[in-house]
Task: structure prediction
Amino acid sequence: QDQLMESGGGLAQVGSSLKLSCVHSGDSRCISSVNWYRQAPGKEPEFVARIFSGGQTNYSPTVEGRFTISRGNTKFPVYLQMTSLKVEDTALYYCDECGDRGQGTQVTVSS
Result:
């Protein structure tokens, strides 16, 4: 079964950077955007960023200016470059398209 897979999470210090990747194991037939969400323990999932097929991007106000979503010349992989990390960025990050999501990759930011 085709699936989305995230990688690149880990433990980071406040102010540092991490780059997450999202790949699709097969050929995606979804024509919608690819989205990054995150979910902290005990909280609802939170939209982080999305990239549309034409390359347009949207960001949550909480990450705009610090995070950058990008891709190459193909739909996947999709990257999430995270800079100036804060403790409150700690969460399970996952990518999503057309309602399908991956298992996620944990990002933990410590002070």
Summary: The mean pLDDT is 94.
